[in-house]
């Protein structure tokens, strides 16, 4: 789990820094860490706005965030208001997957797409929907929260697709089976030489492919884009394509959409957040 910070000027990222966390964190911890890190590493005198891409269900006008998230107690902190009051700058905020989708829609691989599904694999699984060339948010800002979709109930526990597809769960499951702590990157690196990595990755890919297929019958999108750090891994995207198209052929339906990675990979959410000012609605 991590937080990325940077300057962006004319869609060019500079001075990018990353705060890494060894465990899941709370919103109260994050806002304190964020302000302290900004004060030590960035010159706010040259900044004209602050743009936030965060997990959870986000009301970008009020700044209120809530819902399921890898960051605990999101509703206890209003990041927009806190940073606005601290730095006296305009602050724009949106869900991280919707930010990634906005970047891909405006300056990325979804420019020529009409209806697109964007999935971001990070700590959990985030999603966003582009319908008729616009980000669709729904009635309660929850549209695209595909990581929250129910897969099954296990002893009355709600098992969602973040539990099944997120990188945090992949790492936890690997540790549970082997006793070794490895990053998602390391697990994927060992796909062909480690039976545990092979089994767990194939399981992750299957659930992700199943979700994509099911959503395709609801939205009828022409493109699926995958973001997050894992999108840089060619083995991952090839395995996913193979599994999706295999399941699609079994369904009896035609192959009607393409699968690709986000043009800006793990930085799509940063670039999308920077575009919020001109695309707020």
UniProtKB/TrEMBL annotation:
Native organism taxonomy: Bacteria, Bacillati, Mycoplasmatota, Mollicutes, Entomoplasmatales
Family statement drawn from the similarity comment of this UniProt entry: Belongs to the ROK (NagC/XylR) family.
Taxonomic superkingdom: Bacteria
Keyword annotations from UniProtKB, A to Z: Kinase, Transferase
Molecular-function GO term, any one: kinase activity
Cited Gene3D superfamilies: 3.30.420.40
SUPFAM superfamilies attached to this UniProt entry: Actin-like ATPase domain
InterPro entries according to UniProt: ATPase_NBD, ROK
Name of the molecule in the record: Putative ROK family sugar kinase
């Amino acid at each position: 789990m991590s937080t990325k910070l940077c300057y962006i000027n004319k869609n060019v990222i500079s001075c990018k820094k990353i705060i890494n966390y060894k465990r899941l964190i709370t919103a109260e911890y994050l806002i304190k860490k964020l302000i302290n890190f900004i004060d030590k590493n960035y010159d706010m005198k040259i900044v004209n706005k602050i743009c936030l891409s965060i997990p959870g269900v986000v009301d970008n006008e009020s700044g209120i965030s809530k819902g399921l998230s890898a960051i605990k107690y999101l509703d206890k902190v209003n990041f927009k208001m806190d940073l606005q009051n601290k730095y006296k700058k305009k602050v724009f905020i949106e869900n991280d997957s919707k930010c990634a989708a906005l970047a891909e829609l405006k300056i990325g691989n979804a420019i020529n797409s009409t209806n697109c599904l964007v999935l971001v694999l990070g700590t959990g699984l985030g999603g966003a929907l582009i319908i008729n060339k616009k980000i669709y948010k729904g009635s309660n800002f929850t549209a695209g929260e595909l990581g929250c979709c129910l897969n099954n109930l296990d002893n009355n526990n709600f098992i969602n697709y973040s539990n099944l597809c997120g990188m945090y769960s992949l790492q936890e499951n690997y540790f549970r089976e082997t006793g070794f702590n490895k990053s998602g990157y390391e697990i994927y690196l060992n796909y062909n030489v480690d039976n545990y990595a092979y089994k767990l990755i194939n399981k992750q890919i299957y659930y992700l492919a199943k979700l994509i297929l099911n959503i395709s019958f609801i939205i009828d999108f022409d493109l699926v884009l995958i973001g997050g750090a894992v999108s840089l891994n060619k083995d991952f995207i090839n395995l996913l394509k193979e599994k999706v198209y295999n399941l699609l052929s079994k369904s009896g339906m035609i192959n009607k959409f393409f699968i690709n990675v986000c043009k800006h990979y793990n930085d799509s959410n940063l670039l999308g957040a920077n575009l919020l000012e001109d695309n707020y609605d």
